[in-house]
């Protein structure tokens, strides 16, 4: 059966684009996509365990999210570079990678990643790498840009060698990625868009309840301002001591779709609902920079959302669990992180420590596995994460499940980089990561290392600085720093780093050393 699949897939790939022209979301397209996905299990069994098998990965790092909210993130077009860590797949000698971006990636950045490949020369890797670009910085998702360019789609198709099994790797999967997969005739290692609702804030709360997991008191499936006001009123009536509540859009991300409502000076008797209505404009602090109240509520009506209590605590953390569901329906807990949230509201993702604190990493890992098994049984595929709020109560930690992100995220690329560099695995039972030779490793990562002094630094400048000051990953020690988001440096004065060390303290030291060098220069 596997040999037949290998023969049939190239025929599927070789068909012309016109065979797959459907309107997005039609019944025919959805049926075609499901047929393509059904063949992914056999492909996965055939080629994924074999590092020498001929295969191609088409990487489309499109942030197919609400573009108005996404625009609040400086340099977001360069976030497509975060998955450049997947160029490390070229360490497998017969693997080809096709990487598509909105704007071209500087060759210096590509070389920066390729020089880390173990046992493979840069020349050999480059023969198996195809970089394609839309040459388009407009506020539109990368996948939509690709779909507007039939000739680019054909170039992607032609970059898949004859005889190769191929699949797409995406940041998230929507109906646009589904359309592109059908046009290319290859499966996606990711969640079917028909199941995406399990990643919304409302559906997440329903799932947590079904799994018997603790979650903040609140209300889901809210549709408009009136329902938000009613939910805020009910929360305060149920808990008179409640100081704050969180309003979240169903499809918000990185905290940018959230707002914090303050109950300070609230009237606690019959006039509470009127008080909330009168004060909501003034007391609702919106996370996304530059978004006013009317815009927030307009987008809330479009997406729907939830209202839930703001978890208080003298000692609280924001850990997350990353899981993977394979085409063979295997569930793996692949990592945990302690997320750093910042901004004026404390809701914006800033960075993360890996792994999460040892006193609770195994516990949230078990909760993540419970959620993953629930999603697996409903057909979900690929990587996703679960965010928690954890509060220390005396000598124990209580964990509140907050939301599910059915996509890659800010903790995906740092972990992939660590895994590619050290060939190790996360042990969910004890909450530690071990390299291939049994060493324990940690890291600190951020996408938000920024300073006004960094403006004007080109990728070439950064690489020169890194070489001159030994800011690199040492394969012998399996420690050091890796940069990403390098393309955003000159225009936006920001970049990302992953600092790997043999202890949490060492990762902090490497980070401080990196920042000191960059700031001096």
Description:
- This protein is an alpha+beta fold.
- It has helices at residues 2-14, 27-38, 40-47, 67-70, 107-114, 122-126, 142-147, 150-158, 175-184, 201-210, 225-238, 272-283, 293-303, 361-376, 412-422, 459-468, 489-492, 504-520; strands at residues 55-60, 95-101, 129-133, 165-170, 218-222, 244-249, 258-262, 284-286, 305-309, 316-325, 331-342, 348-354, 382-393, 396-405, 425-427, 432-434, 442-450, 473-474, 479-484, 494-501.
- The protein folds into four domains: 2-189, no CATH class; 217-309, no CATH class; 315-431, 2-Layer Sandwich (D-amino Acid Aminotransferase, Chain A, domain 1); 441-521, TATA-Binding Protein (2-Layer Sandwich), CATH 3.30.310.
- Strand 6 (244-249) and strand 7 form a beta hairpin.
- Helix 2 packs across helix 9 (175-184) and helix 11 packs across helix 12.
- The radius of gyration is 23 Å and the shape is globular.
Task: Describe what is shown at a glance.
This protein has 521 residues and is an alpha+beta fold. It has 18 helices and 20 strands.
Record keyword descriptors for this entry.
521 residues, alpha+beta, D-amino Acid Aminotransferase, Chain A, domain 1, 4 domains, nine-stranded antiparallel beta sheet, five-stranded antiparallel beta sheet, 18 helices, 35% helix, globular, disordered N terminus
């Amino acid at each position: 059966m596997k040999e037949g699949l290998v023969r049939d897939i190239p025929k599927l790939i070789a068909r012309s684009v016109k065979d797959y022209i459907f309107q997005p979301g039609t019944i025919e397209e959805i049926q075609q996509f499901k047929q393509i996905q059904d063949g992914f299990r056999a492909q996965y069994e055939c080629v994924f365990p074999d590092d020498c098998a001929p295969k191609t990965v088409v990487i489309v790092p499109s942030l197919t999210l609400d573009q108005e909210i996404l625009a609040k993130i400086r340099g977001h077009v360069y976030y497509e570079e975060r998955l450049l860590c997947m160029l490390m797949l070229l360490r497998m000698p017969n693997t080809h990678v096709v990487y598509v971006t909105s704007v071209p990636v500087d060759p210096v950045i590509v070389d920066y990643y390729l020089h880390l490949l173990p046992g493979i020369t840069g020349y050999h890797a480059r023969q198996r790498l195809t970089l394609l670009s839309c040459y388009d910085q407009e506020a539109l998702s990368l996948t939509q840009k690709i779909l507007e360019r039939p000739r680019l789609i054909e170039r992607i198709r032609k970059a898949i060698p004859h005889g190769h099994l191929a699949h797409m790797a995406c940041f998230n999967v929507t109906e646009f990625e589904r359309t592109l997969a059908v046009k290319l005739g290859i499966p996606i290692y990711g969640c079917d868009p028909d199941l995406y609702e399990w990643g919304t804030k409302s559906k997440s709360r329903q799932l947590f309840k079904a799994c018997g997991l603790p979650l903040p008191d609140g209300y889901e499936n809210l549709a408009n301002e009136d329902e938000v006001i009613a939910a805020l009123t009910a929360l305060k009536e149920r808990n008179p001591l409640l100081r704050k509540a969180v309003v979240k859009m169903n499809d918000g991300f990185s905290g940018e779709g959230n707002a914090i409502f303050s109950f300070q000076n609230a009237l606690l008797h019959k006039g509470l609902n009127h008080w909330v209505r009168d004060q909501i404009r003034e007391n609702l602090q919106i996370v996304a920079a530059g978004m006013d109240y009317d815009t927030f509520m307009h987008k809330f009506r479009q997406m729907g959302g939830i209202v839930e209590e703001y978890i208080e605590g003298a000692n609280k953390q924001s850990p997350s669990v990353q899981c993977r569901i394979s085409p063979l329906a295997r569930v793996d807990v692949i990592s945990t992180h302690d997320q750093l949230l910042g901004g004026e509201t404390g809701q914006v993702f800033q960075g993360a420590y890996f792994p999460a604190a040892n006193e609770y990493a195994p516990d949230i890992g078990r909760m993540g596995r419970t959620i993953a098994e629930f999603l697996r049984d409903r057909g979900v595929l690929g990587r996703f994460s679960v965010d928690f709020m954890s509060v220390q109560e005396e000598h124990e930690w209580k964990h509140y499940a907050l939301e599910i992100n059915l996509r890659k995220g800010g903790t995906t690329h740092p972990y992939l980089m660590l895994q590619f560099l050290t060939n190790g695995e996360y042990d969910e039972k004890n909450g530690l990561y071990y390299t291939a030779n049994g060493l324990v490793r940690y890291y600190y990562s951020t996408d938000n290392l920024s300073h006004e002094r960094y403006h004007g630094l080109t990728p070439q400048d950064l690489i020169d600085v890194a070489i001159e000051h030994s800011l690199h990953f040492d394969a012998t020690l399996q420690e050091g720093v890796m940069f990403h988001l390098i393309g955003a440096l000159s225009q936006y004065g920001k970049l990302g780093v992953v600092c790997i060390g043999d202890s949490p303290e060492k990762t902090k030291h490497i980070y401080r050393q990196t920042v000191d060098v960059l700031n001096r220069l």
